[in-house]
Amino acid sequence: MIEKKIDELAVKVYETREIMGAEAAREAAECILACLEKKETINCIFAAAPSQNEFLKELVSDKRIPWNRINGFHMDEYVGLPVKDSRSFSGYLSSVVFDKVPFRSVHLLNGMAETEEETRRYSQLLEENPTDIVFMGVGENGHIAFNDPSAADFQDKSLVKEVVLEEVCRRQQVNDGCFPELKAVPKKALTVTVPGLMRSAHVFCIVPNERKAEAVKRMLTGAISEDCPASILRRKQGAKLYLDQDSAAFL
Predict the structure, then answer these.
(1) CA 122, CA 116: separation in Å to the nearest integer?
(2) Strand 160-164 and strand 188-192: pairing?
(3) Which residues make beta-bridge pairs with 45?
(4) pLDDT means per 10 residues in the chain (251 residues)?
(5) What is the per-residue burial (b if ≥16 Cβ within 10 Å, else e) of 159-172?
(6) CB-based contacts of 12: which residues, under 8 Å, 6+ apart?
(7) In what order do the strands lie in the sheet with 76-78?
(8) What is the pLDDT of residues 209-218, one digit of tens each?
(9) DSSP-derived secondary structure for the chain
(10) What is the predicted pLDDT for the residue at 177?
């Protein structure tokens, strides 16, 4: 394992994505337990993507975690897909996390609801339940949640908003095997904004895969700007980035 710090961001590189996922899950569990020593309940936001598979599998298998003291949220959802649809992020997270362990509560974004009403509802939930931990990935275009470069705003006044997805972002969903072809991928989504994510006390960012190597390079060596939204993590005290050798190939 290689470890370094870039600005405020702790970066750890592991030999394989399996080791990366296991170590990220172990450290995440320790963070959860430390937070629960100070508070009766905590609030966690989860990312939905195949890049999170190894991490989430290990996390839900950790018997130390009292899930009944954790409120679960997710960070983005396609507009036009029903809750728990097999293609939706709520469906993915329900199958690999939310339905696997007994959360205190789970709050799902509804891609079929009227957009303005749903962004207001979910924003209010996040206001009432300040996030303790965010578990996220990074997109091939450097996005975090669905904050693509064209939609990201480091000074955003909203906590949740509707966005139009860039084609490279939609193509990633095909590359990941989530949709059979580009035209099947929805063009709009709801997302927690960059400030909404960065309000969390702790951020764990898990990024395997060679297709993410260019984004990781820009994230860590380029300017901190909306051109690569993930670069904002370099300003986040206590944030941690977990890479495998493939995603770290250009560093």
Answers:
(1) 10
(2) antiparallel
(3) 73, 134
(4) 96 98 98 98 96 97 98 97 92 96 98 97 98 97 97 98 95 88 94 98 97 98 98 97 98 94
(5) bbbbbebbeebbbb
(6) 1, 2, 3, 20, 23, 240, 241, 242, 243
(7) 76-78, 188-192, 160-164
(8) 999 999 999 9
(9) -EEEEETTEEEEEESSHHHHHHHHHHHHHHHHHHHHHH-S-EEEEE--SGGGHHHHHHHHT-TT--GGGEEEEESEEETT--TT-TTSHHHHHIIIIITTS--SEEE---TTS-HHHHHHHHHHHHHHS--SEEEE---TTS-BTTB-TTT--TT-S-SEEEEEPPHHHHHHHHHTTSSSSGGGS-SEEEEE-HHHHHTSSEEEEEE-SGGGHHHHHHHHHS-SSTTSGGGGGGGSTT-EEEEETTTTTT-
(10) 85
Residue with tokens 């970066």: 11
Express each pLDDT in 129-153 by its tens digit: 999 999 999 999 999 999 999 999 9
Rounded to 5 degrees, φ, ψ at 117 are -65, -40
CA distance 232 to 224: 6
The answer to whether the beta carbons of residues 44 and 75 sit under 8 Å apart is: no
Pairing relation of β-strands 2-6 and 9-14? antiparallel
Burial of residue 216 (CB within 10 Å: 0-12, 13-18, 19+) is buried
